[in-house]
Each structure stands twice: as C-alpha cells, then as structure tokens.
Design brief:
The chain has 281 residues and is of the alpha+beta class. The chain has helices spanning 3-10, 13-23, 28-35, 39-46, 56-70, 74-84, 108-142, 151-154, 184-189; strands at residues 204-211, 215-220, 226-232, 237-243, 246-251, 256-260, 263-265, 271-272, 275-280. Among the domains are: 3-84, 434 Repressor (Amino-terminal Domain), CATH 1.10.260.40; 204-280, Sandwich (Immunoglobulin-like), CATH 2.60.40. It has 9 helices and 9 strands. The strands form 2 sheets. It has a 5-stranded antiparallel beta sheet with strand order 3-2-5-9-8, with no helix packed on it. Strands 4-1-6-7 form a 4-stranded antiparallel beta sheet, with no helix packed on it. Strand 6 and strand 7 (263-265) form a beta hairpin. The longest helix is centred in the middle third of the chain and has 35 residues, at 108-142.
C-alpha cells in the first residue's frame, strides 16, 4: 500500500482526499475544473458532508473519479464511503429459499375469468337484441302508408236510368249554350277575384332630402323595413316613399333640407347634437 493510501486509512475519507490534493499542489478550483464538478461539491466530499450531494450513487461515482485523479486506490475508498453511507454488499439468498410464488391448488382467477366472460356475453346479447328491436321500429316508422284508392277505384258505379217502355216519348234536353268568354275587366269585377295590384295606402309619405353637407340617413317604414340607410355626399338628393309611421334618423341635420309630400319640414325642433330623430305619422 502506498503512503497516500496509508494516510487515507488513518484519516477520514474526505481528509485523505484533501491531503492528497494538497500534496500535489492543487486547489479545489483546479480539481473542479479538471473533473467537471462544482467547487462546492469537491468541498463537500473533502468535508465528508454527503448530505449536500445529490445521492449515494453520485457520491460513490465522485469519490471513485476523484481518487483515480489523485492516484489513490479508488475501489478501497469507494468501499469506505459505502460503509459510511450505511451500504454494503448484500448476501445472496440460498437457492433453497428461492421459491416461485405459484399456488398449489387451482387458481381462483379462472373462476373470476369465467364469470366475467359470462357477463360480457350477456351484455352483448342484450345490446344485440336492443339493436334488432330498434331496427324493426325504424323500418316500421319508415314504411310508407298504404296508398289511398284512386279516384277511379273509389268512384261508385252510377245506375243508369231504366229504358223507356215502348211507345213512351223520350224528353229531349237541349244542349247548354256555350259560355261566352269573360272579359278581363269583368273578371276583375267578379266578387272574390283577387285584384291585379294592391291599391295605394293613404298613409304613404313622400320624402325629398337635399344634402348641403355629407350626411348619414336611415329611414324605416311602419313594418320596420329599411327604406334608406347610407351616407349621402354633399350636393346629392334622395326621394323616398313609404307607409307611415316613418322612423327617420339624420346625421349633420343642419346641412339637410327635407320636404314631406312636397311641403317643407323643419328639422330643428327634432335635432339634438346635430342629429335629428323624427317619427312621421
């Protein structure tokens, strides 16, 4: 055994590593840079502070690498650190103690498997029966209803009048005169006939708007239908007709002139913040 190894057995593992490092004139930073460890990890190994390291496996690997770098007996130091960590070789159990945990008697799992198989089969049968019933019900609903008898089939035979006896005179019914064609004016005057076009409603309003400035206008009739909704440029005009009451909204109302049925309409009483809101009855 070398002198460094004798020192390692006499002192603690961390102290022996520190002495070997100092004997070679190396600092903790030199060792950390060479082994690619953090300096605090090297210091924890040399202080025997294994709780500051990730785990026992990491500690053993780090001790082995550090000892080989310093030229020490790495395996002897690994055994020492394993003893300090409370780990050691575990004896193998004898072959007579190795028993396969099989049951001597029949397994209960086979019975459970049988019961589960029966349950699955029963469930599958129920699902199949329900599907067949649904298909029959769908076919019954989708079947077309029986066809109604045609007019020729439903018509009952009309009995013919008895033939006149010999010597009786047969009345002669004159043939009806052909109907004269009805003129178009007379057809429109016939009660129940629909008129060719609906008459004008008395409440219809005719609006004329002239725009001295660009203005946005929206006009809706009595049924809520939008008759006009657009931005109108300066110098343009619009003519709108609709059934009252009319809902009118005019932006930049001060720059719009409006007439109702060719009569001037003053928008000022209906204007707030240059927006006029008018309801024409």
């Amino acid at each position: 055994m070398s002198e460094a190894a004798a020192d390692a057995t006499a002192a603690t593992l961390g102290a022996s590593l520190a002495r070997a490092r100092e004997a070679r004139g190396l600092t903790v930073s030199d060792v950390a840079m060479h082994l690619k460890f953090a300096p605090r990890q090297i210091e924890a190994i040399e202080a025997d502070d294994y709780r500051a390291l990730p785990g026992a496996t990491f500690v053993r690997g780090m001790v082995r690498t550090y000892a080989r770098f310093l030229g020490l007996d790495a395996e002897s130091l690994v055994r020492d650190v394993s003893a300090q960590l409370g780990e050691g070789p575990k004896p193998l159990a004898s072959m007579t103690d190795l028993r396969v945990p099989f049951q001597a008697g029949p397994r209960r799992s086979s019975r459970v498997y049988l019961l589960l198989s029966l349950a699955v089969l029963v469930a599958a049968g129920l699902v199949a029966g329900d599907w067949v019933l649904r298909m029959r019900e769908a076919a019954r609903v989708a079947a077309p209803p029986p066809a109604a008898p045609t007019r020729a089939e439903s018509a009952q035979p009309v009995p013919l009048p008895p033939a006149p006896a010999s010597g009786d005179s047969v009345p002669v019914v004159p043939a009806p005169a052909p109907a004269e064609p009805v003129k178009a004016d007379e057809a429109r005057a016939t009660p129940g006939a629909e008129p060719a076009s609906p008459p004008l409603v008395a409440a219809t309003k005719r609006l004329r708007l002239e725009f001295d400035r660009e203005s946005w206008v929206e006009i809706k009739d009595a049924d809520g239908n939008t008759l006009l909704s657009r931005v109108n440029p300066q110098g343009s005009r619009q003519v709108v007709e609709g059934v009252a009451p009319l809902q009118i909204v005019i932006g930049n109302a001060s720059g719009v002139r409006m007439t109702v049925n060719d009569e001037a309409f003053d928008l000022k009483p209906y204007t707030r913040v240059d927006i006029a809101r008018v309801t024409l009855d």
